[in-house]
Amino acid sequence: MSFKPNSSSPAPLPVNSQGGGVPSPGPAAQPLPRPLFNDYGPPSLGYLSAGGGPQQPPQSKYAELLAVIEELGRDIRPTYAGSKSATERLKRGEHSIMHARALVRECLAETERSARS
């Protein structure tokens, strides 16, 4: 199987009315809201600080779950590199996989309760 590049060229951007030749975004090019999730890493929550400073408590079980997932993500990469301490933190830490599993169950129950009401 061989790679075949896409031969179509991108659509040109509209040129601004001053004639300067600098492309300007069209009226439909509004800034998009920042997505909660992305495909390039763990979600970043506003109450988690990288410097280890003061943290706000999560507002819901779902927010708490996202925080646990983010903390777990910080130990995953060193584990792949062979870090034994990161492996132990994953097994026994406050933000363990077992804690995340329990939070997932609680989030599902919370979602079912809110769907019924």
UniProtKB/TrEMBL annotation:
Residues 1-10 have a biased composition (Polar residues). Keywords: Kinase, Nucleus, Phosphoprotein, Transferase. It comes from the Eukaryota. Residues 24-34 have a biased composition (Pro residues). Residues 1-61 are annotated as: Disordered. It is found in: Nucleus. It holds the Pfam family CDK2AP. GO terms for molecular function: kinase activity. GO terms for cellular component: cytoplasm; nucleus. Belongs to the CDK2AP family. This is Cyclin-dependent kinase 2-associated protein 1 isoform X3. It comes from Petromyzon marinus (Sea lamprey).
